[in-house]
Amino acid sequence: MGESLIPIYIMGKRYEVPEGLTIMKALEWAGYQLIRGCGCRGGFCGACATVYRVPGNFRIQVGLACQTPVTPHMTLMQLPYFPVNKAVYDLDKVGSPLETLLQLYPEATRCLGCNTCTSVCPQKLQPMYYVAAALRGDFARAAELSFDCIMCGLCAARCPAQLVPYNIAIFVRRYYSKHMRPKPRHLKDRVAEIRAGLHDQALAGIAAASEEELKKLYLEREFEKL
Amino acid sequence: MGYPIEMQESIRKLEATRAFRLQQEIPRLTPEEKNRLLEQCHPDFRPDGMRPVRVGPNKGQRMQNELVDLLEAYSRIDPDRVDLSRIDYDVDVLVVGGGGGGATAALIAHENEARVLLTTKLRLGDANTMMAEGGIAAATQPNDSPYLHFLDTIGGGRFQNKRELVWALVHDAPLIVEWLKDLGAMFDTHPDGDLVVSFAGGHCRRRVHSCKDLSGMEFMRVIRDELWNRRVEVLEFSPAVELLLDERGRCAGAILMNLETREHIIVRARAVILATGGIGRLHPNKFPTTNHYGATADGLVIAYRAGARLLHMDAIQYHPTGAAWPEQMLGQLITEALRGNGAQLVNVHGERFINELETRDVTSSAIIREVRDRKNGVRTPTGMEGVWLDTPLIDIRGGEGKLDRMFAGIVHRFREYGIDVHKEPILVFPTQHYQNGGVEIDPEGRTGIPGLFAAGEVAGGVQGRNRLGGNSLVDIFVFGRRAGQAAALFAREGPSPGKLTLEHVRRYHRELAAEGIEKGRVSPLLLPDYTRPEVKERRYS
Fold this sequence. Notes:
The complex is a heterodimer.
Chain A: E1 5-10, E2 13-18, H1 23-30, E3 49-53, E4 61-64, E5 75-78, H2 97-104, H3 116-120, H4 127-135, H5 139-146, H6 154-158, H7 165-180, H8 185-195, H9 200-207, H10 211-219
Parallel strand pairs in A: 1-5
Antiparallel strand pairs in A: 1-2, 3-4, 3-5
Helix pairs in contact in A: 4-5, 4-7, 5-7
Chain B: H1 5-16, H2 18-23, H3 31-41, E1 50-52, E2 62-64, H4 65-71, E3 74-75, E4 89-96, H5 100-111, E5 116-119, H6 128-131, E6 136-137, H7 146-156, H8 163-182, E7 197-198, E8 208-209, H9 215-229, E9 233-235, E10 240-246, E11 251-257, E12 264-274, H10 298-305, E13 310-311, E14 316-323, H11 337-340, E15 344-346, H12 360-373, E16 378-379, E17 385-390, H13 392-398, H14 402-406, H15 408-415, E18 426-435, E19 438-440, E20 452-454, E21 459-460, H16 471-493, E22 500-501, H17 503-514, E23 522-523, H18 533-537
Parallel strand pairs in B: 3-23, 4-5, 4-12, 5-9, 12-20, 19-21
Antiparallel strand pairs in B: 1-2, 6-8, 7-8, 10-11, 10-22, 11-12, 13-19, 14-18, 15-17, 16-17, 17-18
């Protein structure tokens, strides 16, 4: 094999793996068939949060196994699950934004402002700032700042005040989107038309057309300009 | 990191032609040109990629080799050793699959007062839905209509779609957008609150609604949060390994396997909804895939064994733009919305070669022709070839900030590898993306087996032989809802299931044996195995 191999330590056990692989592919190369700690393999799903250390740096480091390349002498462990607090609520029956937030997640006010959450976020978000925005009642800002969250759990695992920033964030985003943003007019109109059956005849007509007729209509379509 | 020198030379050619390309109009292909291109270059037409399946309801029909291998295989369980009198869960509706389709079906069945159990192979939400970037197609704009959405969808499917399914799809699509908005999904909006819509290939109107470039993730996490709020019962890491029928052939539950303890779990249900997704992780034609780790055709296999008919399983979708560089991102999805907002496909010489808003089957074939037949591909140091996707055009056309606003995920993921997509293009090549066919359903998600419903990618007929961008997210919600409702009703008003049996598995085994198919291979696959042959060999088992 022409590849150059480097040593890594999977939960303390030494394996030699090719340089340049992601942590996930290195695990598989070493012989693991993953059940937990593997999901979309593309950085979206948050299943493969991993903590690791490298020589010469006393700090714990974090990353998604599917996105982070291995480096020599990396010592790693996956964190496929972390128990967290998730409030149960009915989005149709909620009060004012801030009042509801504090009811559901009273611990939010315990944030120490240490910003450890930011240093562990593999998406490079700043959970401390979106939690702060939410606590100011600025749900728009909190929603925007937290949007790219993949709910991997690392911030919750490391928070000394034991907040679950990402569960706070999803509540805030849903509240904001449902109750603080207008319902688009064009959407309301179209839904009303459909409910009134105004499109049924056109659809019944085209669904009954001959294949020849369909092909002709398809070719004659006019395209909106890019 | 960034691009190696050799690739940068080609980038300079691309930059030199940009002003010309911005003015250049490439006409769409005629139907004859399309057919010729598909036959020449689409992977579905490779003579050695498929073979006829020798058993089951579709006996004699050609399908992807990797799928046929799993259909011509024995059950993971020995029917004679299973104690079906020991029932672990007794519910109205069992939903198999925890992606967007399954989660929606569970939510709606629960709303319809069914006792629901959702079981899934990995975690709730671990599915292709989570990875859908571009968005959801629906005719919500004043210049658009369900009629036009119908025409685009059926033409894109090469007129092979089941029409009543397309009808249901386009009719419900705007209702689904409203439903998602009411659940608190954060759609991209204009300052006045109107929804932002983009083009996708084959659509004659802008009608794809997005949540940045994380649309599927946004819908999935919102619906999952709602399932948790309603306390719907969920079993994770427990895939279904076989369906259960009763002695009259009606579906009446499933056998699950706890992946961690390898213990089996018997579920009796008055209705079962399959929402297990597609086959990407079988790597048809050895292509890389955009798909989730769990996309291993499990639902197709167990439904087929129980007697359900499959439709269009010889039509696989290859997404035109999978990442071809850096190596670590090989095959990952680069959203079509980039082309929908003006990014162009460009060869090694800086030339366009296809209208970027052709349907996916055609666009992928054109890229394959450009690289393989015309030798106009851009080569990477590892020997992979691709063409450029000129992403800087998006800010040039749409104003600075548009890439950051709408495609933050793409910007972020490439920045990690030293590539700035504001200034540099992305190298792409087709990657397996979707199974166009699946278990045949009707507009209520019913399969040919009473009591068995299917929704989403595992189901077939909606998309014909080729799905349009934006039509999958809408498919899973439309048919997830319809199946959830119909299954709840069936559970309430249909007859009670009789005695549970695995007779269909025994019958299937006999059919395999009669064809001379030897024991040894079992299915469903459940998990792909990416360990090395050297390691496998030394397991000595």
